[in-house]
Automatic annotation (TrEMBL), chain A:
<feature type="repeat" description="WD">
    <location>
        <begin position="62"/>
        <end position="104"/>
    </location>
</feature>
<dbReference type="InterPro" id="IPR036322">
    <property type="entry name" value="WD40_repeat_dom_sf"/>
</dbReference>
<keyword id="KW-0833">Ubl conjugation pathway</keyword>
<keyword id="KW-0687">Ribonucleoprotein</keyword>
<keyword id="KW-0677">Repeat</keyword>
<dbReference type="GO" id="GO:0016567">
    <property type="term" value="P:protein ubiquitination"/>
</dbReference>
<dbReference type="GO" id="GO:0032040">
    <property type="term" value="C:small-subunit processome"/>
</dbReference>
<dbReference type="InterPro" id="IPR001680">
    <property type="entry name" value="WD40_rpt"/>
</dbReference>
<dbReference type="InterPro" id="IPR007287">
    <property type="entry name" value="Sof1"/>
</dbReference>
Automatic annotation (TrEMBL), chain B:
<feature type="compositionally biased region" description="Basic and acidic residues">
    <location>
        <begin position="554"/>
        <end position="564"/>
    </location>
</feature>
<feature type="region of interest" description="Disordered">
    <location>
        <begin position="1"/>
        <end position="31"/>
    </location>
</feature>
<keyword id="KW-0597">Phosphoprotein</keyword>
<keyword id="KW-0539">Nucleus</keyword>
<dbReference type="GO" id="GO:0032040">
    <property type="term" value="C:small-subunit processome"/>
</dbReference>
<feature type="compositionally biased region" description="Acidic residues">
    <location>
        <begin position="15"/>
        <end position="25"/>
    </location>
</feature>
<feature type="region of interest" description="Disordered">
    <location>
        <begin position="523"/>
        <end position="576"/>
    </location>
</feature>
<feature type="region of interest" description="Disordered">
    <location>
        <begin position="362"/>
        <end position="438"/>
    </location>
</feature>
<dbReference type="Pfam" id="PF04615">
    <property type="entry name" value="Utp14"/>
</dbReference>
């Protein structure tokens, strides 16, 4: 005899907890659920409001430095460890979960100009104003004074350092870009193109033989380590302070410029940037990509940090606190959750990358609700009321006023150009797009 | 030597230049003569030298003399090979090449050289980097990205490996494995035992075909039987099932008989088994009135005759199953089956008193059983075939037994119970002598009514009953009693008639008991003074009647003894002569049966319907009229208003009390063209406003947002709901899937070639030498 048994998936009728609501079979007849758009609109509006209500991005500050924080580095293997170098030559190693300093080293005389961790996370390098490059162990010694593993004495001041992503090679910059083997005390090769101080050098994380640097003669230079030659140089209107490669897109990098803007370039087409990101009201000092490559965070002299989507010209978020001064360095943690910024007033601050995100483990229903709200916000983002709420940010008065002022200035410039075009021979005043406007030249 | 000679010749040429052309020719000639003279002097050796010169006018600086163009051909020269010597030709080639070569360019400046290097490096590097283009685009367009990109792919382990890696640990597993190994069950892929494989191999084609045909046939037959079984299972007809059951029973019985004949011991064991079953049943207390089903039935039984019947069947079944099988007389009767025993053996053995005392035995003192009994008692029915036929009859009768009977049984049961509870002896409450003694014609109309009520099976509606009963006021309580008494009397009289034969069973009747019954009836009448009077009275009367009918038999009988002779027996029930009186009384009580009054009551209660409640609650506001008014107002507002441009006093006299002339008004009152018909003119429940609502406009998108190209696209994107209210769970999850998923506490490393899905990897590998297959590469833009 064949026995037929009804079999049901317990997921269809079993509650997650006994406090949970009973599962109810649903009737999806649209006639029973009218006004779907207005109802979803209201839900979206509420979600947007709640997002703003819960937007509390500041998590805490790591204080302990006795001078402004000049540079930071992420530990490549540990999410909870971060390194920072201050203007008094002190390097600190922090534990983020405990929000404590676990180690302090007096690394240099004068500024610690640059700091970077080795790709394996066993040691880190610092460069300072005392013309030295020092390599340190990541673990603190059991007893006694901290001593670097290696110290390289250079002839000139090094202003930045970055480590190769896969090999035992690092690059420093100063008068020229030097590429060092870890085992040697003299550089493997020195790359120069013109004479000026180079402020930052960065290895490409995907195509690891590529380097980018920016110098104070307003240019960005790309190098190829294999051919030990520079590739191309692009000159901007103003100096670029630093640049950062996109960790998911090998040919994209973003440059933080003195002219308050950030420029995202495709290294294959340097004639014009892919995107100009404008929102800061003062020089942008540092930039770091999120590990997903979808966004980046920028630190500015205007005492705020901003988060930009890679493909948007305007920032989606601005973080500031009353006590935060000029932000010199910023990092996005490798789990895409937090942002660290080091500023002039000796603090390192820890922020949520997503201001209204709930930290900790989410129940499945919470997650579903979150996803739904996210989708609703996305769906109704163009509706004026929702857009107004979503974009509203409180800003310090200085920034607010400067934004207004700059808007006026930009408007005046635009008007003037319009007038000039109107009153001169057609074609004599060409239309230059915003992207092209900031590029002076591309040098082969 | 030739150089020397050449030198002289050159010297001669120089001197000849000075003299002019003629001088030069002269000089040459002279020179030749001189040479000839000299050579003649030197003898043979000199001549040889002259012979070695070549026939050419020109003189070359490279050791090739062309001297002797005008000389005579020497025969010996012709003996030499025609082609020039190879060594010389090589020299000549070199010479021509050297002559063709241009000057070496100046080396590039250092700056320019560097630039060239840079440019070349840039081109190759950007080509190198360009191999990521496809992947980057793919990731940008991806609906969902999960970081870290490097996901652990669950590798599919081959079955053999998995099986070999797994060890049986628990005893059960070991046992199973032992079995598997013993029967050489295959663990690895071709899932055939060695025997199966061998048989498969051994089978020839013919055999295989035959086998297959057999299998097909078998399958067909099987499916046919399955279908049949399914069909049979679906049949809902009770009759069919009853017949089926009966035939089964018959079959079993026959088998049993055969068994008894052939093998008495086996039959005995069979009987023992049955006994066992009975005991089990008894222990399990199944088929009683305790189960869920039974209780639900008991509730419904009050109104539903079917349910009641089912209940009774169940009780009967219980009894039947609990009946002890008489095994001690195996040779007496073959129909030792308990089912038959039930009817044939048990019922008569139960004494009346016992049946009253034992509620278990009250289960089914129903008329069919009695009838059967009567039949049995009457006829000589002892053979199995007859028993069978009887059974069939019984069942048919059961079918026939109407609802009335079932109801009646119920009542009798109830009555019994009540009696036992009250401790009233059955005979005691049985006299309505007083009532009977009343003159029957005293109140004719109510009497008729009551009679109708009683005899007509209570077909009167409740209203009629009420009317009848209400017509009698409190003051006439006596008459009420009378009515009831009369009714019961009549009833009893009717009952008495068929049972006339069994009259000697009648017991002594104490008169005092009759008084009691009367008191009870009075109480009933007195209680019925209020609003519920008719109902209560009716109900009580109903309940009282059968009880009275049951009880007053003795008195009645005595009274009517005199009459009995006078009255001709209408229905001489010859068959029922042997039936006990009580059974007869119960059986005939059917006429007392009443309609389900409580149902009527319920209907009355439910009469206040929802609609009424709502209308009552919202009695004050007339929503419909309000809406109509509102709509009319909206229509009025929407109508275009005439523009009044009349200026009083212009062109005529003006002042208070003076009206502008009609002509002027006609001219200057501008009537606008009539508005187009309203869209809601045929929709009475709708007001459609075509005005722009500024409050709504504040929430609306005023211009088409960037990524959309047409407003339809945008509207469509808004129109589709994503919520769980409108979508199934699965669709909801799909629609709200986040763009980027990250796992907290996981480091997201930069993308690398290993992270790229296998499908996109070829692009990554081929990109560095993009001109390998130009046709293919051209297809992909950007690389």
């Amino acid at each position: 005899m064949r026995v037929k048994v009804l079999s049901r998936n317990p997921d269809d009728y079993v509650r997650e907890t006994k406090l949970d609501l009973q599962r109810v079979p649903r009737n999806y007849d649209p006639a029973l659920h009218p006004f779907e758009v207005p109802r979803e609109y209201i839900r979206a509006l509420n979600a947007t409001k709640l997002e703003r209500v819960f937007a509390k991005p500041f998590l805490g500050s790591l204080d302990g430095h006795r001078d402004g924080v000049n540079c930071m580095a992420k530990h490549p293997k540990s999410l909870s460890t971060v390194l920072s170098g201050a203007c008094d030559g002190e390097v600190k190693v922090w534990n983020l979960t405990k929000r404590q300093c676990i180690r302090t080293i007096q690394a240099h005389e004068g500024f610690v100009r640059g700091i970077c961790a080795r790709f394996c996370g066993t040691s880190f390098f610092t460069v300072g104003d005392d013309k030295t490059v020092k390599q340190w162990k990541m673990e603190s010694p059991e007893y006694g004074e901290e001593e670097p593993i290696h110290t390289i004495l250079g002839k000139t001041v090094y202003t930045g350092i970055d480590h190769h992503w896969k090999e035992a090679v690092f690059a420093t910059c100063g008068q020229q870009v030097d590429i060092w083997d870890e085992q040697r005390t003299s550089p493997m090769c020195s790359l120069t193109w013109g004479f000026d101080s180079i402020s930052s050098v960065k290895f490409n994380p995907i195509e690891t033989y590529l380097l980018g640097s920016c110098a104070s003669d307003r240019n960005i230079v790309l190098y190829d380590m294999r051919k030990s030659t520079p590739l191309k140089k692009v000159i901007l209107n103003m100096r670029t302070n630093t640049l950062c490669w996109n960790p998911m897109e090998a040919f994209i990098f973003t440059a933080a410029n003195e002219d308050y803007n950030l420029y995202t370039f495709d290294m294959r087409f340097l004639e014009s940037p892919v995107m100009v990101h404008m929102d800061h009201v003062s020089a942008v000092l540092d930039v770091d990509y999120s590990p997903t490559g979808k966004e980046f965070v920028s630190a500015s002299f205007d005492k705020s940090i901003r988060i930009f989507p890679v493909d948007k010209g305007r920032s989606r978020e601005v973080y500031h606190t009353k006590r935060m001064q000029h932000v010199i360095t910023v990092k996005w943690t490798s789990d895409n959750k937090y942002i660290l910024c080091g500023s002039d007033e000796m603090n390192i601050r820890l922020w949520k990358a997503n201001a209204s995100e709930k930290l900790g483990v989410l129940a499945p229903r919470e997650k579903a609700a979150m996803n739904y709200n996210q989708k609703l916000k996305e769906k109704f983002q163009y509706h004026p009321k929702i857009r107004r709420i979503a974009q509203h940010r409180h800003l310090p008065k200085s920034i607010y006023c400067q934004i207004k002022e700059q808007r006026i200035m930009r408007e005046a410039r635009r008007r003037k150009e319009l007038n000039r075009r109107k009153h001169s021979k057609p074609g004599s005043v060409p239309l230059v797009s915003e992207k092209k406007k900031h590029i002076v030249a591309v040098v082969k | 030597m030739s150089e020397e000679w050449l030198g002289t010749e050159a010297a001669a040429g120089e001197s000849g230049d000075e003299d002019g052309d003629e001088g030069q020719e002269d000089g040459e000639r002279r020179h030749r003569q001189l040479l000839e003279a000299v050579s003649a002097l030197s003898g043979r050796k000199r001549r040889r030298l002259a012979e070695r010169t070549e026939a050419s006018v020109q003189v070359s600086e490279f050791n090739v003399s062309t001297k002797g163009a005008g000389e005579k051909l020497v025969l010996a020269e012709l003996l030499q090979p025609i082609r020039p010597k190879s060594a010389l030709s090589r020299v000549k080639n070199e010479l021509t090449r050297v002559k063709q070569k241009a000057a070496v360019e100046l080396p590039l400046s250092k700056e320019e050289a560097k630039r060239v290097v840079r440019e070349a490096a840039y081109v190759t590097t950007s080509k190198d980097v360009g191999k990521w283009q496809q992947i980057v685009l793919q990731n940008r367009r991806a609906e969902q990205l999960v970081f870290p990109l490097k996901q652990d792919v669950a590798a599919v382990v081959p079955l053999e490996q998995a099986a070999s890696a797994w060890k049986a640990r628990t005893p059960l597993e070991q046992e199973i494995f032992g079995l598997l190994h013993k029967t050489k069950q295959p663990i690895t892929d071709p899932l055939l035992t060695p025997e199966e494989a061998a048989s498969l191999q051994a089978m020839s084609l013919e055999e295989a075909r035959q086998r297959r045909a057999e299998l097909q046939k078998a399958r067909v037959v099987q499916s046919y039987y399955e279908a049949k079984a399914r069909r049979e299972k679906k049949i809902k007809s009770k009759k069919y099932h009853r017949v089926l059951k009966k035939s089964k029973r018959r079959k079993a019985l026959k088998e049993f008989e055969l068994l008894q004949k052939s093998d008495p011991e086996a039959a005995l064991t069979r009987l023992e088994e049955l006994e066992q079953l009975r005991m089990q049943e008894r222990m399990s207390l199944k088929h009683q009135s305790k189960g869920k089903w039974a209780r639900s039935r008991a509730i419904i039984a009050k109104y539903d005759l079917e349910a009641r019947k089912a209940m009774q069947e169940q009780l009967a079944k219980n009894k039947e199953l609990m009946q002890k099988v008489r095994v001690e007389l195996p040779e007496e009767k073959p129909h030792g089956m308990p089912e038959e025993d039930l009817t044939s053996v048990t019922v008569p053995t139960i004494p009346m008193d016992a049946s009253r005392a034992n509620p278990w035995l009250l289960g089914k003192p129903s008329s069919p059983a009695k009838e059967l009994e009567a039949q049995e008692g009457q006829g000589d029915v002892s053979e199995p075939g007859a028993a069978e036929s009887k059974e069939e009859m019984e069942e048919e009768e059961e079918e026939e037994m109407s609802e009335e009977e079932a109801l009646l049984q119920d009542f009798t049961q109830k009555r019994h119970m009540r009696r036992q509870q009250a401790g009233i002896p059955a005979g005691q409450d049985a006299d309505v002598t007083g009532a009977v003694s009343e003159p029957p014609g005293a109140i004719p109309i109510p009497l008729i009514c009551a009679e109708a009520e009683v005899s007509g099976g209570m077909e009167l509606p409740a209203g009629a009953q009420e009317e009848v009963l209400l017509s009698q006021q409190l003051g006439r309580a006596q008459t009420m009693e009378d009515v009831e008494a009369l009714a019961s009397e009549e009833h009893v009289e009717e009952l008495e008639q068929p049972a006339a034969g069994g009259r000697e069973v009648g017991v002594q009747q104490p008169v005092a008991a009759g008084a009691k019954a009367r008191a009870w009836q009075q109480r009933a009448a007195g209680a019925g003074t209020g609003a519920e009077q008719p109902v209560a009275a009716a109900a009580e009367a109903r309940e009282g009647q059968p009880a009275a009918a049951g009880g007053e038999k003795g008195a009645q009988r005595q009274q009517e003894e005199g009459r009995a002779g006078a009255r001709p027996a209408r229905k001489p029930a010859a068959q029922k002569q042997l039936i006990s009186l009580q059974a007869v009384l119960e059986g005939r009580a059917q006429e007392v049966q009443c309609p389900s009054l409580p149902v009527l009551l319920e209907e009355e209660e439910g009469g206040i319907d929802q609609r009424g409640v709502i209308t009552e609650a919202f009695a004050g506001d007339d929503v419909v009229a309000d809406f109509r008014r509102e709509k009319r107002k909206a229509e009025q507002d929407a109508k275009p208003q005439p523009v009044n441009l009349v200026l009083p006093g212009w062109g005529e006299w003006g002042g208070s009390g003076l009206k502008p002339s009609a002509k002027k008004i006609k001219r200057f009152l501008l009537k606008p063209p009539p508005a187009p018909p309203r869209k809601d003119q045929h929709l009475p429940h709708v007001i459609m406003s075509e005005k722009r609502n500024i409050y709504a406009a504040a929430h609306q998108v005023s211009e088409l947002p960037f990524p959309f190209e047409r407003h339809q696209q945008f509207e469509q994107s808004i129109r589709t709901p994503v919520g769980a209210t409108w979508n199934t769970q699965r669709a909801f999850q799909k629609l709200t899937a986040p763009r980027v998923i990250t796992r907290s506490g996981h480091i997201i490393p930069p993308i690398s070639a290993e992270d790229v899905p296998a499908a996109a990897r070829p692009a990554l590998e081929l990109a560095p030498e993009p001109r390998v297959q130009p046709g293919q590469r051209r297809g992909r833009a950007g690389l």
